[in-house]
Amino acid sequence: MVLVINAAKITRTAAAFVAGCRTLDPELSIRGVILNNVNGQRHEQVLRDAIESACAIPVVGTIRKAAVNPLPERYLGLVPLQEHTGTSQLQEHLLKLAYGLDLDAIISIARNAPSLEIGPPEVSIPAVKDVKVGYLRDAAFNFYYPENLEQLEQGGAELIPISAIQGGLLPEGLNALYIGGGFPEKYAVVLSSNRNFLESIRRAARAGLPIYAECGGLILLGQTLRWEGAAYPMAGVFPFDTEVCNTPQGHGYSELLVDTSNPLFPAGLVLHGHEFHYSRISFGDNPVATACSVLRGTGCFQQRDLVVTKNVVAGYTHLHALATPEWAKGLLDAARHFAPRSVHRSPSPIEAIV
C-alpha cells in the first residue's frame, strides 16, 4: 500500500507517523509514502530525508500546498459537482498537483500488490423491466451510491431522474420514488416555494407510493426545515420538523436491527451503513412509527431509525446496495405491488387549502 500523510506544519515528526502506522498494523505492507500539503522544496527535502532514513520506505510523491483549493469543501465534505463553479479548470489544477508524483513507482507498487481475496458479494435480483423508479437528482439531492442505482436497474427498474428545484409535479406512472442525500437547506427557499411538487409527493405518499429516503430526503419529507433562524415548509409526509444545526448530530458507521413490520425489510435483519448529518428531528405531539433499533450510531431519535408511514421509509442511515442486497429487492418488490394511479394532478382549491 501507499500511505498518504498530511505534512502541513510538521517536519521530522512525519517519520514518526509513518513508523507508527507500520507498527500499529504489521500486516499492512507500506511500500511508499506520498506527502500532501508540502510547503516548498526545503520542506520536502527534510520530510523525505527523515522518512527514508528512519523508516527505509521511499517517498514516491509530494503534493505542494495549493494557493487556491481546486476542490472546495463544505461541512459534509466536498462541494457537490452541481455547485462547483470551477469545474472547467479542475483537470488543469489537478494535473499540476500531480506533477510531484512518481507515477512509475506508484504503478510498480500497485502491480506488485497481492490480489484481493474478497470479491464483491453476489447479488441476485430477478430482472423484469416492469417498474418505473423515480429518483431526485439535482443540486439539492445528489448523494447516491452508483451501485444503488445500478442494482435497481439490474433488478428491472427504469430509473427516472427528477428535479425537485425546477418546478412541476412528480411524473405520472411511477411505481416507487428514491430520495437520496444532499443539501436541501442550501436550496430551502426554492424547495419550499415549489409547492405543487411538494404536494404531489405528499399525495403520492398518501396513495401508497413506495418511497425510500435517506438523510436529505428525510428532511424533504418532514413538515418544516428550520435553518439559520428561518422555517421552510417541506412535503409534510411525516409530522415532524427537522433543524439543521452548526455541529454534527450523527457521524460514523451505523448498525440497525429491523424489529418492526415495515414495507421494505424483514424483521430480524441487521442493516450496516453510515450516517453524517448536521440536522435533527424535533417533534410535535404526533407519534411516529419506526422500523429499527439503533445498535450503533445515532439514528433519528431515541435510538431508533427508519421512520415509517404507509409505504414510506426514511432515515439518517445511508445503505449500500451491495452490502445490503435486501434494500434493492425490498424497494423493487414494493414497487411491483403498487399500481400507479393518477395521484400527481394539481390540487383543487379545496385540496390546496387542506
Architecture overview:
The chain is an alpha/beta fold. It folds into two domains: 2-111, no CATH class; 131-353, 3-Layer(aba) Sandwich (Rossmann fold). It is built from ten helices and 21 strands. The protein has helices at 13-24, 41-55, 90-98, 103-111, 146-154, 188-193, 195-206, 216-221, 325-337, 349-353; strands spanning 2-6, 32-38, 59-64, 73-74, 77-78, 131-136, 141-143, 157-162, 176-179, 181-182, 211-214, 224-227, 230-233, 240-244, 250-258, 270-277, 279-283, 289-296, 304-309, 312-315, 318-319. The termini are far apart.
What's the architecture of the largest domain, going by CATH? 3-Layer(aba) Sandwich
- Which shape, going by the Cα principal axes? elongated
Q: What multimeric state do the chains show?
A: single chain
**Which strand-content bin applies to the residues?**
25-35%
Ends: how far apart?
60 Å
Main β-sheet, in a few words?
Answer: 10 strands, mixed
CATH fold topology of the largest domain: Rossmann fold
Rounded radius of gyration (Å):
24 Å
Helical percentage: 25-40%
* Total domain count: 2
Number of strands: 21
Order of neighbouring strands in the sheet with most strands: 8-6-9-11-20-19-18-15-16-21
Classified by CATH, the class of the largest domain is Alpha Beta
